[in-house]
């Protein structure tokens, strides 16, 4: 009988692989001391029986919002002795007023696990609970994902009017810059009593963040300092996103491991960058609704065959006329026996695809066809076609 020991090999690179995972939060979050301090200061009144101001945190993806807030939540819970509570809610999962309220009720009231109670009932129970003089802080992470958010905010702020003692306050977090504009004015003024921004990390900062993980999760000398610096520089150039930087480093480590190398160098980081880039594009495309995918597919197809108008001076560098892409898209819909959408919807799909970085566009000069939009695919067409085809079986 063979032993499993034969097959269990120790990694030459990782001493603790989990440290490099996106879910790991180190005890010390570098470059966020200031934000963490400020937030703790603003939540502290709850520990003294006073209602903190509602706070809104904005910052691009991977700037440490969730990690910082989770640390603070933990510290708060350690300090609070029953009379104040903080509840963290991931609104990607709990994305409706009812679900949020149910989650809050379950978190603060022991034995409250009866599903099927309506929103008014949950609300009344929470009021009773807080009415004993308790302070409740609700963290709504990725708050932009909540449907009927105005209704939820209204319910929660109304609670304060009904409570003589005790209170409910909100800590909202989002990486959507335009989110604020979509709120109704009343919600906006209640949520934005205080606002905080988490800036993107610089190359130097990302390098320090990566170094910390290398120390905690890899064997000594398993990662060259050049590799760390390069990964940090790449991520800073892209967006200042620590998650992206960590992904590159993790992939680079896997590449080194697979080729039985004892050390991560620049070369592995370069290769990892391409893989991570591809993963991100793939994920973005797979999440697209059907018509967006069809438009993207049409752009990719035409990018391969070339624009009909390629001879024109104004059509350079693989750009396509918006009109010809629309034709290709409607053709495609016909083939698939699907109803194509109007030109107006088509233009809004183009905007969405551009926002996601899957396309770029420019306005043409006053050429033969007058002013028109010129479109270019953001990624290699063959890859895009492969991903779209795969995600539709
Ligand atoms: N200052 C830091 N020190 C160490 N690791 C960090 C730091 N900031 C972020 N990270 C790491 O980067 C990853 C992303 O961070 P986090 O989830 O906090 O970002 P976020 O701002 O909430 O992003 P999103 O808007 O996408 O939700 C996590 O794995 C986290 O551990
Ligand atoms: Mg987050």
Brief synopsis:
The chain has 393 residues and is α/β, with parallel strands linked by helices.
Fold and architecture overview:
- There is one protein chain.
- The protein is of the alpha/beta class.
- It folds into three domains: 33-198, P-loop containing nucleotide triphosphate hydrolases (Rossmann fold); 202-286, Helicase, Ruva Protein, domain 3 (Orthogonal Bundle); 290-391, Arc Repressor Mutant, subunit A (Orthogonal Bundle), CATH 1.10.10.10.
- It has 14 helices and eight strands.
- The chain has helices at 33-43, 65-79, 97-108, 119-130, 149-162, 185-191, 203-217, 225-238, 242-258, 266-286, 290-305, 322-335, 343-355, 381-391, and strands spanning 55-59, 84-90, 135-141, 167-174, 194-198, 320-321, 359-363, 373-377.
- The protein has a five-stranded parallel sheet, with helices on both faces.
- Helix 5 (149-162) links the parallel strand 3 and strand 4 (167-174).
- Helix 7 (203-217) crosses helix 8 (225-238) and helix 11 packs antiparallel against helix 14 (381-391).
- It binds adenosine-5'-triphosphate and magnesium ion.
- Adenosine-5'-triphosphate binds at residues 22, 24-26, 29-32, 59, 61-67, 175, 209, 242-243, 246.
């Amino acid at each position: 009988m063979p032993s499993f020991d034969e097959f269990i090999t120790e990694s030459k690179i990782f001493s603790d692989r989990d440290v490099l995972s996106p879910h790991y939060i180190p005890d010390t979050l570098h470059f966020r001391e200031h934000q963490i301090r400020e937030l703790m200061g603003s939540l502290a009144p709850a520990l003294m029986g006073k209602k903190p101001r509602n706070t809104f945190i904005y910052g691009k993806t991977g700037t440490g919002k969730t990690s910082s807030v989770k640390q603070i939540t933990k510290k708060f819970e350690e300090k609070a002795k029953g009379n104040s509570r903080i509840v963290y809610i991931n609104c990607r999962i709990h994305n409706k007023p009812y679900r949020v309220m149910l989650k809050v009720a379950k978190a603060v009231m022991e034995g409250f696990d009866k599903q099927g109670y309506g929103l008014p009932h949950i609300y009344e129970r929470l009021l009773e609970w807080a009415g004993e003089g308790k302070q409740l802080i609700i963290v709504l992470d990725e708050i932009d994902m909540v449907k009927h958010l105005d209704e939820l905010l209204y319910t929660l702020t109304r609670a304060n009017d009904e409570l003589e003692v005790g209170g409910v306050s909100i800590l909202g977090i989002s990486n959507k810059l335009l989110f604020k504009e979509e709120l109704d004015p009343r919600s906006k003024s209640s949520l934005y009593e205080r606002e905080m921004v988490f800036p993107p990390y610089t190359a130097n900062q990302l390098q320090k963040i990566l170094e910390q993980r290398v120390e905690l999760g890899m064997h000594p000398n398993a990662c060259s300092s050049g590799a760390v610096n390069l990964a940090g520089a790449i991520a800073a150039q892209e967006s200042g996103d620590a998650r992206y930087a960590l992904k590159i480093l993790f992939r680079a480590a896997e590449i080194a491991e697979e080729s039985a190398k004892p050390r991560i160098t620049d070369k592995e980081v370069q290769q990892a960058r391409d893989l991570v880039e591809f993963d991100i594009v793939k994920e973005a495309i797979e999440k697209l609704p059907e018509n967006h995918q069809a438009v993207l597919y049409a752009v990719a197809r035409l990018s391969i065959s070339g624009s009909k108008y390629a001879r024109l001076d104004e059509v350079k560098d693989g750009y396509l006329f918006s009109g010809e892409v629309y034709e290709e898209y409607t053709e495609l819909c016909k083939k698939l026996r699907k109803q194509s959408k109007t030109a107006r919807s088509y233009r809004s799909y183009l905007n969405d695809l551009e926002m996601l970085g899957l396309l770029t566009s420019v306005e043409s000069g006053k050429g033969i066809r007058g002013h028109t939009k010129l479109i270019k695919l953001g990624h290699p067409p063959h890859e895009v076609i492969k991903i779209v085809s795969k995600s539709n079986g």
